[in-house]
């Protein structure tokens, strides 16, 4: 049977890439010595030793220098201070109470809602600034919208028919009506065929439409033409 020429080369490459302990492998670190066992508090951080001297000089002097003056705390007289505060301060305003029983049960009048403190404010009954500002913005937006609508209406405004054009159209309609009326008068009295009936009905419709248009032009002096 057929044997490839490269069979031996492939087997050699496959065996060359194989090696024992390739996945796990032996330990590549040094085995710790039994004498280096974990001792108590060995992993706690250690502070650096205190240095008593640095470059032949002491870090802190043992005694304060001659020029040192200690801070003297002045003792305050709180009794005199409180007395001055009471004398110079504003007197307390009397609190309003409400008594609602004969036994003398009373409660504060201000938080009860019976004391008119809100109507005595300076800004009581004054429209807030945000309301005024919002009303102005709404008014300005309404004016801008009305201006845009008027501009659009001016662009789409209908044209007015002049008096000369109206007179000319009216004359043309009357002339057309006379022609169709002359043709209608010339029809035979007996309409015994379908064509005669259809022709008569068509002329009647044309005369009716022309009479309606003539009456509209004569009735209205100002006529607007829409752009369709």
UniProtKB/TrEMBL annotation:
GO terms for molecular function: calmodulin binding. It comes from the Eukaryota. Keywords: Cell projection, Coiled coil, Cytoplasm, Cytoskeleton. Residues 1-18, 38-58 have a biased composition (Basic and acidic residues). Residues 133-225 form the Enkurin domain. Residues 1-62 are annotated as: Disordered. Pfam families: Enkurin (PF13864). InterPro entries: Enkurin_dom (IPR027012), Enkurin_domain-protein (IPR052102). It is found in: Cell projection, Cilium; Cytoplasm, Cytoskeleton. Residues 135-167 form a coiled coil. One of its GO terms (cellular component) is acrosomal vesicle. PANTHER family: ENKURIN, ENKURIN-RELATED. This is ENKUR protein.
């Amino acid at each position: 049977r057929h044997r490839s020429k490269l069979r031996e080369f492939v087997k050699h490459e496959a065996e060359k890439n194989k090696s024992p302990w390739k996945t796990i492998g032996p330990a590549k670190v040094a085995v710790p010595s039994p004498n280096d066992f974990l001792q108590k508090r060995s992993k706690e951080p250690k502070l650096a030793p205190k240095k008593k001297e640095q470059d032949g000089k002491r870090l802190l002097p043992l005694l304060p220098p001659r020029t040192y003056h200690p801070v003297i705390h002045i003792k305050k007289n709180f009794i005199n201070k409180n007395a001055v505060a009471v004398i110079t301060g504003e007197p307390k305003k009397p609190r309003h109470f409400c008594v609602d029983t004969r036994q003398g049960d009373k409660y504060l009048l201000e938080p009860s809602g019976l004391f008119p403190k809100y109507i005595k404010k300076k800004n009581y009954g004054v429209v807030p600034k945000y309301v005024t500002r919002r009303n102005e913005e709404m008014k300005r937006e309404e004016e801008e919208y009305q201006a845009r609508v008027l501009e659009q209406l001016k662009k789409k405004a209908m044209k007015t028919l002049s008096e000369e054009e109206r007179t000319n159209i009216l004359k043309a309609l009357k002339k057309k009506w006379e022609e169709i009326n002359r043709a209608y008068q010339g029809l035979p009295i007996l309409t015994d065929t379908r064509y005669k009936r259809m022709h008569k009905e068509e002329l009647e419709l044309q005369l009716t439409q022309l009479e309606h248009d003539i009456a509209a032009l004569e009735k209205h002096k100002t006529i607007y033409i829409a752009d369709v």
